[in-house]
Please model this.
Amino acid sequence: MSPGMSAFLAEVVTGYNHFILVYFILINAGYLAIFLLSLRALWRFVKRSFFPDYEKIRASDLTPPISLLVPAHNEARNIVESIHSLLRLNYGDYEIVVINDGSTDNTLPLLIERFALKRSSEPVRVLLDTEEIRGVYRSLSHANLVVVDKVQGGKSDALNAGLNISRYPLFCSIDADSLIEENALLRLVKPFIESPQETVAAGGIVRVANGCKVVDGRVVQVGLPKSRIAVMQVVEYLRAFLAGRAGWSAIQALMIISGAFGLYRKQEILEIGGYSKDTDTEDAELVVRLHKAMAEAGRRYRIIFIPDPVCWTEVPETWSVLIRQRSRWHRGLMQTLWMYRGMFMRRRYGTLGTVAMPWFVVFELLGPVVEVLGYISISLAWWLGILDRSFVVLFLIVAFAVGALLSVGALLLEEIAFRRYPRFRDLLRLLAYGFLENFGFRQFLTFVKVKALLDILLRRRGWGRMDRRGFEPGDSGDGDGPRS
Amino acid sequence: MRTAVAIAIMILVSVLAALMLYILARRLVVAWVQGIERRRRETLEQALQPWLRGETATPPSLLQRLRRWPDRSIFVDLCLQALPRTDAATRARMIEWLEAHGYVAQWLRELRHRSAWKRENAAELLGIARSERAVDPLLEALQDEVLDVRMRAAAALGQLGGRRAREALIGALTDQNRWSTIRITDLLSGMGPEVGPELRRAFPGMGRAARLAAIDLIARVGSADSGEFFTALLQDDDIDIRARAAAALGRIGHHPAAGPLLQALEDPAWPVRAMAAKSLGSLQVEAAVPLLCAALRDREWWVRANSAAALRALGPAGADALRRMQDDPDRFARDQARATLEEMETTS
Model:
């Protein structure tokens, strides 16, 4: 290489390294701010929940009935357990609408057999266009269970079909591989009762079911999985929900409600056309679209995260499934941000447009790219002989320490507010993994996100295959979880 | 620069270590404290049970030398658990003891505490203790800025009862929060038949949410002339008020309302039609059969479902109508009729 070229390259590398330093300070200051917002919100929440009114809510005539929409595609392993868990929910009036989205396994025959389903002749009023509905089945053993069998059209299409069938003013989307805690609906519905005009959507927390003991569709003993990948995700989920979404929700800028467990007002969702089929993550897209519609209509509204209604879900225990899941999430984030780029930095859309969306673009979307380029830049600097090794080592120590601090901070929130992992050994493991995930796991996910970006740029797209083993220790799946 | 980064590392690592230690220490301390509390609770429970159950009128000597921690909170907890279950004499004795030893005074002070959580806790305790001294402070607490404090104060007043408490709770129905309206409605429904007339007197001055709640409440507690009152409300401009009034007429079994309810079955608003159909079924109005059959063709599922249920409730006349509707040109009407008949067969 010519000396001129080397000098130019050295200047570029040095400039980029300075940029990385500023970027690093900004992103971590941002995370710290979100963490502090979450801490404040959770503190208030815990104090408020000292005397729960849940039994009163259940008993009240005025508690709104809820339709639970459960899209299922090849879910034979988990579906019976999931429905049993839903049938046991402690809630007044609710219906369960399972949408069999063209399953090729024995999901439908299994449902017919286990829940005494009988084909119904009832017509369906089409409020949202969907793929063809082959049949509607009602359970003879459980009056509030209905199963819709339809041609495969994807999760969004299945949810739209469920919306067409559902009868109640509120609906809750639930993944077929998830378990909802008995009082979760009562906890989730509370803001809809307190401010029925303003609250349009609410999401609960998704926790990792791997490692927990499940009996009759109910988590009876909370524990950590043996798999290291799954434990890393336990920490990750806690950080994303308790130290992330709680903070975003506090400033009215919640961008994602997990598809695994979200409660919505049906009317508003029908008005905006239901779920979109144009994205890989229909839940995030729906929430952003809802924000947009509400803001444009000039309505006072709330889209909130509530930290104690719990949905337990399987997380992947193999690298290949994890890669597919995270690629899909990151692609979905990119698609959503691109679709709603018009909201970016517009005051009309409140904190979502002026804070959350810029944050997600600059740090969540581009962050992985900046990080990977940083590794390349360091390598180049070393190759060019301009690397300040001791500074790089110090910088990496700071980066790891900040990462660990955020994870341990999330564990602190969990410990203060919920303490769901009763065994001391589990707490020690969580703390250790909160530290260890910064050495390899986080970097691995960074590369996965960059790959997802490349997939989008090269127009490669797909849902990936879902591998599930059912609710037993040692499971793997492709559940719906935290995303940022 | 290097020094700054080194200092940053030291601070970060220290904070990280401190946090981890705090989490672990907290878990250990909490477990230790809970162990002590559990053991002490067992001792206190054993010693206090005869007094708490009213088997002895003399307070056990242990009560004179309760430790500040954890005895006092355990004792209060035991009292509060026992109070709702004890007879009036024992309750009066326990409240007297709580008052004499400064517990009630302490809770009254805490009702003005700057921490909302303390205020909420105090309101809860005062409600369970049912001390007459608490009425005025609790009325004041109904204006608290924090919803949960208002709710606890309302619940406490509900437990205390009396005209002043009732009037205050009726006034509190106008609270902007829907949940507080629901809770206060529940409380008022347990405060005796006087609530009905008092609510009707207050009705004209109420806001919309309070009116809606009041309609349900009057139907629940019953009141003379409430039938005429609800019938008049069927002409209200507000859809929800008309719908609630229609539902209330069925609930109280006001047969003279059959005519107005038949008219309400053709109301432009579907919630009113749905509730009118339901009430016509409850009132067993056979003359409603043709209109209920027509309502099976309604665009709204709730109207169709309630009309079919009403026909079912009418007995043979309704069942015949449902059978005829199986051949109706409208597929929704046909389906609703078939589904209801299937249900009837399954049930029978």
